[in-house]
Amino acid sequence: MDSNTVKIILETLGRGESASLTLSADGTTYTRRFIPGDRLILLGGGHVSLDVYRMALMLDFDVVVVDDRPEFCNSQRFPEAQVLCDSFENAIERLGITSRDYVCVLTRGHRWDRQCVTAILNGEMPYYLGIISSRRRADGLRELLAEEGYDTEKLSRIHAPIGLNIGAMTTMEIALSICAEMIAEKRKIKTVPAENELLQTNVNIDMLRFLAESDEPRALITVLSSTGSTPVKSGSMMAVNRLGKGFGTVGGGCGEAAAIANARQIIGTGSSAVYEVEMTDDVAAEDGMVCGGVMSFLIEDVRD
Question: Which of 96, 93, 178, 110 is nearest to 145 (CA)?
């Protein structure tokens, strides 16, 4: 593994394209794909949107925030989002919503909700569309739009009221319910990986930058396989330095500790090795672990 390979991955992701990394272990070639985060468009920059934004970043969404009020739509309030301070209708046209997008209508009132929904329905339907609304108002909006001739199949796909019913009360709890519903919808799509293609496809930019740019000796840990009730799936990755400081995770607990210990032995050697950690029920119980199973790791020294 060399840092230039990781730099190419970062450049590819920077163009909004998917990237892949080829890994070799014990005579087998594996592919680890990196897929950019899904675009989440928040229509409205109020208090609920702010909490959804914070949580969505942790879930690898690329967030866009739209509002026509500068005090609610600026880079100071949403520093890691694309912000569009414009009318909702203009912004929706500019964004060019596609069937891959997630859209949350979180405006300050019913009038603006309707503007957003009708503008969206006049174009391509996003993969997820949710409206923060009472059930009565949501049903009334659907009926009104159906009477105006909008596609009833599209209307039936709108999540309104938005979010899973978890009895949310605070803005953070509402944000949690929204993000949980989006993830539930996302995971409905079952993809079958190709032979020797690792399952995880998320992008940890901090980890990749550490691998590509750090001056200190480091290693990359990749989960090649997992069986049983292991905490992570194949493709989970973690970069560590000589002190064991890490970016990313390969499951935490005793399994991760063992992987880090082995990685510290690999750093600086220019070599790689495959290790297996067995977390049987007996071992899990003895060590206070909540899961069992077997995980295999590929650990590679990273060369500059």
Answer: 110
* Nearest-angstrom CA–CA distance, 299 and 304: 16
Instruction: Residue 138: name the closest of 93, 105, 167, 166 by CA.
Output: 105
Euclidean distance between CA atoms 93 and 105, whole angstroms: 15
H or E stretch at 195: none
Reading the block at residue 228, the tokens are 């049983």
Question: What are the tens digits of pLDDT across the range 273-301?
Answer: 999 887 654 444 444 444 567 889 999 99
* In the chain, alpha helices (H): 3-14, 47-58, 88-95, 110-121, 135-147, 152-156, 171-186, 205-213, 253-266, 281-286
Q: Measure the CA–CA gap between 210 and 215, rounded to whole angstroms.
A: 9
Q: Is 289 helix (H, G, I), strand (E, B) or coil?
A: coil
300 phi, psi to nearest 5 deg: -125, 135
Largest interatomic CA distance in the chain: 70
Q: What is the SS3 assignment for 73-136?
A: CCCCCCCCCEEEECCHHHHHHHHCCCCCCEEEECCCCHHHHHHHHHHHHCCCCCCEEEECCCHH
Three-state DSSP at 52 gives helix
Q: Give phi and psi for 236, each to the nearest 5.
A: -65, 140
**CATH number attached to the domain at 39-186:** 3.40.50.720
Altogether, the residues listed in the chain come to a count of: 304
- What's the pLDDT tens digit per position in 214-254? 999 999 999 999 887 677 889 999 999 999 998 999 988 87
Peptide bond between residue 161 and the one before it cis (omega within 30 degrees of 0): yes
